[in-house]
Amino acid sequence: METAERARGRLYGFHRLTGTADFALDRAARLLREAGHRAWADRVETEILGRDAMSGHWTYQIVDASNETSYEPFRHLERTAVAAPPGGREHRFEPRLRRERRTPGHPGRGNRRVSPAGVLPGARAVGRGRHPYG
């Protein structure tokens, strides 16, 4: 799910950057026109400004379609799967990793107890290994 969230964020980033570039073209056309380059300004406005990101689709439509056909079904299934097992919780691996990697007694290392879904009792440092995500 984390990877799907990152992919979705990049899709939104593409949407934002594409829109920002399109608005910058407005300014470019205006500056070209003010500099006496009317033909170039006209070309920017007619050939590039407001184009589809994909044939027949603007980026907001791509984002909406991705949300509907991929992201939301993925999110729903993931939430259902997390809730299904007894005692299911979203972050199963991280509490153990946190226990293993913290420095006991050091300020700012989360040495206080939290909810059952967070830090578990009896936390201790047992060494520092390779991070499982890369």
How would you state the average pLDDT, rounded? 82
Pick out the low-confidence regions: 117-121, 123-134
Query: What percent of the residues sit in helical stretches (DSSP H or I)?
Result: 55-70%
Give helix and strand order, one letter per element, not per position.
Answer: HHHH
What global shape is seen? Answer: elongated
- Give the distance, in angstroms, between the N- and C-terminal Cα atoms: 16 Å
Q: How many individual β-strands?
A: 0
Largest sheet: none
Rg result: 25 Å
Structural class: mainly alpha
Strand content: under 5%
Distinct helical segment count: 4
Write the layout of secondary structure elements.
Layout: H1 2-34, H2 38-48, H3 59-83, H4 94-101
Helix pairs in contact: 1-2, 1-3
Q: Care to describe what's here?
A:
Helix 1 runs antiparallel to helix 2. Helices cover 57% and strands 0% of the residues. The C terminus is likely disordered. With 134 residues, the protein is an all-alpha fold. It contains 4 helices and no strands.
